[in-house]
Amino acid sequence: MRLPISAVVPDYAGGSIVNLSSSFAGHFGVQALAAPLATALPLDDVETIVLFVVDGLGQWQLEKHLADHDMPTVRGLLEESQVGTLTSVFPSTTMAAITGLHMAATPAQTGWLGYLMWLEEVQAVTEMIGQVDVAKQQKLESPHFLKHTEGMYAQLERVGVSAYSVAPTEYRGTWLNEWYWQGAMQYGYVTANTCASVGQVALQLEGKKIVVVYWADYDSVCHKHGPSSRAASDEVSAVDHALQRFIKHIPKDGKTLFALTADHGQIDLLEKKAIYLEQNQEFMQCLRSPPSGDRVCRNLRVHPEKITLAREILEVHSDTILASEAWEAGLFGGLPDKETFRQRVGDIIAFPRDGAQLLFTFPNKQPSRPHRGSHGALSSEEMVVPLIVTRF
């Protein structure tokens, strides 16, 4: 297998975001599917764990924002914290990474292997946030087969540990959210800037607990404007200000651990390098179904006799590997828990080079638009995320 030169492979053995969740679960007496962190956390006598997740904030972005003086609160935390980095999962996309965080399990164990996935069970490319058949634009009638693993919070509830979610109100009631947060109490905010006041209630409740704060909008801003943009600086400044207010409410009892991390980072993309796959008829004739995955990490189901041709066409602008090679190399975190998981990533995985992105417009949908930032592949920008840990 020949990965892109700059590839960073996930460290599922003890240095990834799923290992962080596993360490938290293990501290409270729950045996997670993933291994714990190889590096010990200062968890002695901790009764409250606060996990602050900024979607899309890679380590390189954090360093840039610190250099640009966008994050004075975080700058202050660095002086009194255990500081390091983790890897995301592969693919480095929210549906795989956030699911891994909530389940304390790898993508190979959860089966959540991309933003768009081919689901053999329904014979369709499915958008996983809403569980929508993309071609039909219809929600799956029964998505429960996707619930292969049990969430960490349901397991914590059984051992007497409370879990609290501080996340967008709009997530409440969705199938995905209810799976993630089974066994937990949910506190919704209308805008992320209010997470401090919304989360204050959870922080003040008695008993052993984990409080997870999720900031979604930084990732969205980076998709639209790019992670190097002024807009990204604006958004991360809002994160920092809200974090300052949130920290004021954290009990300073010596028994609270605060951790800041992200699910993945982002890379800058060039709109002029957008490649529209449907415009290459020779390539489209190689496919058994529409492309899935993400624009910087495309999963392709290819007719067996046309795999070589498809790779030759793609190699003009993308690095490619066989999906079977990715499984054998452990990129998804082990062998698949179910054989149908193999089919979810197809036959070929394509990584566009030099700021390119692989777009595809499904029939009867609005044309796919270029992004200025994205994630899903194996570059250090996408894969390496911060870990800042502080005892209060």
Strand and helix layout:
Blueprint: H1 17-27, E1 48-54, H2 59-67, H3 72-78, E2 82-87, H4 94-103, H5 107-110, E3 116-119, E4 124-127, E5 132-133, E6 138-139, H6 152-158, E7 162-168, H7 175-180, E8 185-189, H8 195-204, E9 209-215, H9 217-225, H10 230-249, E10 256-261, E11 267-268, E12 274-276, H11 281-284, E13 292-294, E14 297-300, H12 307-314, E15 318-322, H13 323-328, H14 340-343, E16 348-352, E17 357-359, E18 373-374, H15 380-383, E19 384-391
Parallel strand pairs: 1-9, 1-10, 7-8, 7-9, 12-17
Antiparallel strand pairs: 2-19, 3-4, 4-5, 5-6, 10-19, 11-18, 13-14, 14-16, 15-16
What can you tell me about this protein's structure?
With 392 residues, the protein is α/β, with parallel strands linked by helices. Helix content is 30%, strand content 22%. The protein has helices spanning 17-27, 59-67, 72-78, 94-103, 107-110, 152-158, 175-180, 195-204, 217-225, 230-249, 281-284, 307-314, 323-328, 340-343, 380-383, and strands at 48-54, 82-87, 116-119, 124-127, 132-133, 138-139, 162-168, 185-189, 209-215, 256-261, 267-268, 274-276, 292-294, 297-300, 318-322, 348-352, 357-359, 373-374, 384-391. The strands form five sheets. It has a seven-stranded mixed sheet with strand order 2-19-10-1-9-7-8, with helices on both faces. Strands 3-4-5-6 form a four-stranded antiparallel sheet. α1 runs parallel beside α4 (94-103), α8 packs parallel to α10 and α9 (217-225) packs antiparallel against α10 (230-249). The longest helix is centred in the middle third of the chain and has 20 residues, at 230-249. It is globular and about 65 Å long. The mean pLDDT is 97.
